[in-house]
Amino acid sequence: MSKILEKEFFSKNVVKIVLEAPEIAKSRKPGHFVIIRIDAKGERIPLTIAWADEKKGTITLVVQKVGVTSAKLSKLNTGDEIMDVVGPLGQATHIEKVGTVLCAGGGVGVAPMLPIVDGLKKAGNRVITILAARSKDLIILEDQMRGISDEVIVMTDDGSYGKQGLVTAGMEEVIHREKVDLCFTIGPAIMMKFASLTTKKYNIPTMASLNTIMVDGTGMCGACRVSVGGKTRFVCVDGPEFDAHQVDFDEMLTRLGAYKDQEFEAYQKYLQTVEA
Amino acid sequence: MENIADYLKAERSQEWRAELRKSMKAKERTSLERVKMLEEDPNVRNKNIIEVNKGLTPEMAIVESHRCLDCPDPTCISGCPVGINIPKFIKKIETKDFLGAAVTLKETNALPAVCGRVCPQEKQCELSCFYTQKLKKSPIAIGHLERFAADWERNSGKMSIPKTEKHNKIKVGVVGSGPSGLAAAGDLAKYGYDVTVFEALHEVGGVLKYGIPEFRLPNELVDIEIETMRQMGIKFHTNFIVGKTASFDDLKAEGFQAFFVGSGAGLPRFMDIPGENLNGIFSSNEYLTRINLMHASNDEYDTPVISGKHVAVIGGGNTAMDSVRTAKRLGAEKAMIIYRRSETEMPARNEEIKHAKEEGIIFMNLHSPTEYYGDEKGRVKQMKVQKMELGEPDASGRRRPIPIESSEFIVDADTVVVSVGVSPNPLIPKALKNLKVTDWGTIVVNPDTMQSSVPEIFAGGDIVRGGATVILAMGDGRKAAAGMHKYIQEKITAN
Ligand SMILES: Cc1cc2nc3c(=O)[nH]c(=O)nc-3n(C[C@H](O)[C@H](O)[C@H](O)COP(=O)(O)OP(=O)(O)OC[C@H]3O[C@@H](n4cnc5c(N)ncnc54)[C@H](O)[C@@H]3O)c2cc1C
Ligand SMILES: Cc1cc2nc3c(=O)[nH]c(=O)nc-3n(C[C@H](O)[C@H](O)[C@H](O)COP(=O)(O)OP(=O)(O)OC[C@H]3O[C@@H](n4cnc5c(N)ncnc54)[C@H](O)[C@@H]3O)c2cc1C
Ligand code: FES
C-alpha cells in the first residue's frame, strides 16, 4: 500500500501525484519507472518517476488520462492508497557531459524528461528544452523546465502559445542555429518517430524513452518487446531508453494498438458508470 | 546416506507395518487394479476453470494403498527428488490414519498438496515402483495418494503448523516466493530464524500462481500453505525486487545475515522468426500471467487479453499444455499444439497430454513454425509451418528434429502462444558483480550446500537448474536452508 500525499492537476487531463514510497525514493535514478496497480481488480501500468524526495520518502508521478486506469488514478485523492507500487524499474538514463543536448518532450513525456534535463545540466551540459503539445492548456511543467534548462522553446500545434508548429520544427530551428551533440526525446510514439527521423538527417545521436505496453515490468513476459536494430529487446529491462535511430517505431505503434478495441470499450463503460 | 537407509529399515520393521504386511497376501495385493482418478467431464471442463482432477474418495485411496507391497528395498523412494518415505505414508493410509500419512509427507515435502498435483510422477517415484520395474504393471498411484492425504489434512481443519525452534532473532532473506523460496523459508523458520521473503510481483507463489492454471492447481490451495507460513512468523514483502528496490548491501546494512535466491527462470524465449512481434503473438508467460495473475478473462478485472478462435501453441512442455488448454477454455474453436518432435519426446506430464487430448486439443507433432503473417491492423492471421522428421539423439538424449525441405504449408492462426522455454532471470546476477554464473546465466553453487561464490548467498530452483520442476526446486530450497543454517552457526561460533 502506498499513500497519496499530494495531488495537483497540471491541466484538465494531466495530474501530478506524490506517493509515499521510501525505498523506491532512495534507490531511483533519472529514467527509472514504477509499475502500479490501483486495487485488487486493477491492471498493472508503468509510470515514470518524474522526481523523488529521498528525505521525505516520496516519489512523484505525472499521469495523463488516456484510459480506464489513468482515469481511475486521476480520481483518487490525497490520503487514498494505491495497492501496489513496484520499482524502480528499467535502466537509469546514462548521463555524461557531451556539450549541447536538445531535449524534445511532447505531452506528458515532459514529466519524465524533467529529471533527465536536471541530470544533464548538473553534469555540465548546455541544455535546450523543447516543450510541445497540441495547445496551450496541455503545456506542463514550463516553469520547472525554465528553472533548470539553458533555454526553453514552447511549440503548440495550434499556435495558442509559444511558436506554432510541431516539435520537429522547433528541433530543426535549434539544429540549424547551433551544433547539437545529443538529443533526448520522450512523448507519444508518433512524435518520437518523427523527432528521430529529424535528427537522423543530421546524424545527431538520439535517445528515445519508449512507452510500450507492459505487464510485469521485470522481463518475465515479453509484452513490452520492440525491435531495436533488428533485434527483439524488452523495454522494461533493456530500456526504456534506446538509440532512437535503431528503433522500429512503426512496429511499436502497431503493438501499442494491440488492445485498442478492448481499451476503448472498457473506457466507454467506465465513463458511463462514473457519470451515472 | 547410510543412516537414511537405517532409518527406513527401522521404520519398516515397526510392529504395525509388519502386521499390516501380513494382513494380506502379496498375490492378492498385486491382483488389484490401479485406481482411476475422478475427473470432470472433458466437454464440460474445457469451458470452465474448475479443477480437472477431483481427487480420490477415502474408499478408493484405501483400496489403492493395499496394492503397495511395502517392499524391503523401496525403489520408489530413490525416484523421489526429496526422498519422501513413500511406503510409510501409503501404509498409514491403509490403516485409515490419513492425518498420519500427511504428517509423514511433510517430514520431507513442504507442499504435498501441490506436488501431488504437479509432479511428473511417471518419471520419478512411479517409474521406479516395483510394479513398473519388475511386474510390468501399472505402478501404485503414488501421486494421487499424496494428493489425497494432503487434501484430507487440509479439509479436516486440523492442519498442523510446523513447530519452530526458539526464535533466534537472526535475520535472513529469501529472494523469490516460488516453490524453492517457500521451501527454504519454511525450513529457515523451523530453525528459528527471522525470515523475510521478498517477491517482485504483487502475489506470493511464483510459477504456482502466475503460471500453472487454476484447473490444475487452484490458487486457494497455495494461499492456504502461505497462510500457514505466515503463522510460523515468516514475513512476506511483495512488490520488492532485490537488486532494484534495495540492494543486497542495503539489506545487509539492515541486519540480514544470509540470503536464499530462488528467483526462477522467468525470461521467455522467442524463436526469432519473421513476424513474431505481430499482435496476438504472446510468450506463454505473458498469456498465462494475463489470465492467472491478472484474471484477464474475468470481466470484472481491468487487464485485457486477446484470445482468438484459432490458437496455435508452439512447444510440448507443461507450459505449452497449460496454454493450449487455457485457450480452449477461453473459447478457441481450434486449439493446436505445434511441436517439433513426436509425442514420445514431449516433456509435459503424461496426464496433461492425456487431458489435453480428451478436451479436444489438436496435436500437430513434428511441425515447426517458420514465419507469421499479419492482417492490415498488425494482428497475426496465418503462419507458415514446416514438417520435421527425427534424426539421431542430441545432447538431451532426445531425437533431434530435422526440417523436411519444401514441406511448408500455411495454417490459420489468429493467436499464437510461444512456449519454447525460458532463460534464467538475470536480475540477481546483474546486481551482484562477483557472483559466479554459467554461460547460460544460471548461478553456480556447491551442490551439497547450495552456497554460491558469494559466501552469504545461497541459491536453488530454476535459477540454478535453468528450468526444472516444483519438487526439485523445493528440494534445493530445503538443502540450502540447511546450508545457510550451518554457515550462520559457524560464523557465530567463530566470532
Ligand atoms: C516506461 C513507461 C513509462 C511511462 N510513463 C508514463 C508517465 O510518466 N505518465 C503517463 O501518463 N504515462 C506514462 N506511460 C504510459 C502509461 O503507462 C499508459 O498511458 C497507461 O498504461 C494507460 O493505461 P489506461 O488504462 O489509462 O489506458 P488504456 O485504456 O490501457 O489505453 C488508452 C490509450 O492509451 C494507449 N496506451 C495504452 N497503454 C499505453 C502505454 N503503455 N503507453 C502509451 N500509450 C498507451 C492505448 O494505445 C490507448 O489508445 C509510460 C509507459 C511506459 C512503458
Ligand atoms: C506454466 C508452467 C507450468 C509448469 N508445470 C509444472 C508441473 O506441472 N510440474 C512441475 O514440477 N513443474 C512445472 N513447472 C516448472 C516449475 O513451476 C518450476 O520449475 C518451479 O516453479 C521453479 O521454482 P523456483 O522457486 O525456482 O522459481 P519460480 O517459481 O519461478 O519463482 C521465482 C519467483 O522469484 C521472483 N523474483 C525473481 N527475481 C526476484 C528479485 N530480484 N526479487 C524478488 N523476487 C524475485 C519472481 O517474481 C517469481 O515469483 C511449470 C512451469 C510453468 C511456467
Ligand atoms: S513488461 Fe513483461 S517483460 Fe517487459
Give an overview in words.
The complex is a heterodimer of chains A (276) and B (495). Chain A has helices at residues 22-27, 68-75, 110-122, 142-148, 167-177, 189-201, 235-238, 249-256, 260-275; strands at residues 2-11, 14-20, 33-37, 45-48, 51-53, 58-64, 81-82, 84-89, 100-106, 126-133, 151-156, 163-164, 182-186, 206-209, 225-228, 231-234, 241-243. Chain A has 276 residues and is of the alpha/beta class. In chain A, the strands form four sheets. A seven-stranded mixed beta sheet of chain A has the order 12-11-10-9-13-14-17, with helices on both faces. Chain A has a five-stranded antiparallel beta sheet with strand order 5-6-2-1-7. In chain A, helix 5 (167-177) runs parallel beside helix 6 (189-201) and helix 6 (189-201) runs antiparallel to helix 8 (249-256). Chain B folds into three domains: 4-156, Fumarate Reductase Iron-sulfur Protein, Chain B, domain 2; 171-266 and 424-494, FAD/NAD(P)-binding domain (3-Layer(bba) Sandwich), CATH 3.50.50.60; 268-422, FAD/NAD(P)-binding domain. Chain B contains 21 helices and 18 strands. In chain B, strands 5-4-3-6-18 form a five-stranded parallel beta sheet. Chain B has a five-stranded parallel beta sheet with strand order 8-16-9-10-11. In chain B, strands 12, 13, 14 and 15 form a four-stranded antiparallel beta sheet that branches. The longest helix of chain B is centred in the C-terminal third of the chain and has 25 residues, at 470-494. The A-B interface holds A 23-24, 26-27, 37, 41-44, 68-69, 83-89, 215-216, 218-223, 225-227, 232, 237, 251, 254-255, 257-259, 262-263, 266 and B 200-202, 238-241, 244-247, 250, 266-268, 270, 272, 276-280, 282-283, 285-286, 289-290, 294-295, 300-304, 306, 377-379, 425-427. Bound molecules: flavin-adenine dinucleotide (2 copies) and FE2/S2 (inorganic) cluster. One flavin-adenine dinucleotide binds next to helix 12, helix 17, helix 19, helix 20 and helix 21 of chain B. One flavin-adenine dinucleotide (FAD) binds at residues 33, 45-48, 62-64, 66-70, 108, 111-112, 211-214, 240, 256-257, 260, 263, 267 of chain A.
